[in-house]
């Protein structure tokens, strides 16, 4: 008789534990959802005063680019080259140059070639980690400053991948 009674008392305690965990999970999920709704910025609504993008010759809409010569920004072609050591590692870098005043496309091409030549001298150990990447950014910015004689105000890294 005692075995039967002890089994019956254990059964409801397991059910109560499962029910309590389920209830707490629902309360925590609801609280998280409520906090997310209160803290998240409101979704941007479309307005009638939105700028329309020009249509190209095929009738499709063309997406306006931020990096344009009209904005004083020249996006350089992607640079893909191998590193100095180990030579089997490759780097791909995309940068944009912000000019002070009217952009000089010929200067941008010279800077592009200079950055590509510099990347061939860099080893993997030099660019590892956040500090190494910051040193690389600083070195490239310094080279661009010297080459452009102050006409380029900023070098914007768009992508940086090492394989």
TrEMBL record:
Compartments it resides in: Cell inner membrane; Cell membrane
**Which BP terms does GO give this entry?**
bacterial-type flagellum-dependent cell motility; chemotaxis
Record keywords: Cell inner membrane, Cell membrane, Cell projection, Chemotaxis, Cilium, Flagellar rotation, Flagellum, Membrane, Transmembrane, Transmembrane helix
Q: How does it sit in the membrane?
A: Single-pass membrane protein
Which InterPro entries does UniProt cross-reference here? FliL (IPR005503)
- Principal location class: membrane
Membrane-spanning intervals of the chain: 15-40
Mind telling me which GO cellular component terms the entry cites? bacterial-type flagellum basal body; plasma membrane
**Superkingdom, according to UniProt?**
Bacteria
Family named by the database record: Belongs to the FliL family.
Q: What does this protein do?
A: Controls the rotational direction of flagella during chemotaxis.
Instruction: Output this protein's name.
Output: Flagellar protein FliL
């Amino acid at each position: 008789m005692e075995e039967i009674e002890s089994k019956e008392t254990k059964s409801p305690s397991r059910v109560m534990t499962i029910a309590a965990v389920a209830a707490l999970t629902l309360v925590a999920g609801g609280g998280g959802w409520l906090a997310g709704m209160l803290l998240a910025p409101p979704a941007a609504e479309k307005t009638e005063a939105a700028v329309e993008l020009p249509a190209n010759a095929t009738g499709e809409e063309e997406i306006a680019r931020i990096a344009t010569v009209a904005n004083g920004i020249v996006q350089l072609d992607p640079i893909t080259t191998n590193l100095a050591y180990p030579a089997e590692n490759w780097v791909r870098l995309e940068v944009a140059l912000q000019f002070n005043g009217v952009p000089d496309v010929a200067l941008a091409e010279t800077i592009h070639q200079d950055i590509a030549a510099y990347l061939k001298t860099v080893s993997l150990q030099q660019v590892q980690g956040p500090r190494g990447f910051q040193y690389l950014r600083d070195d490239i910015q310094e080279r661009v400053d010297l080459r452009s004689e102050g006409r380029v105000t900023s070098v914007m890294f768009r992508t940086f991948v090492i394989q």
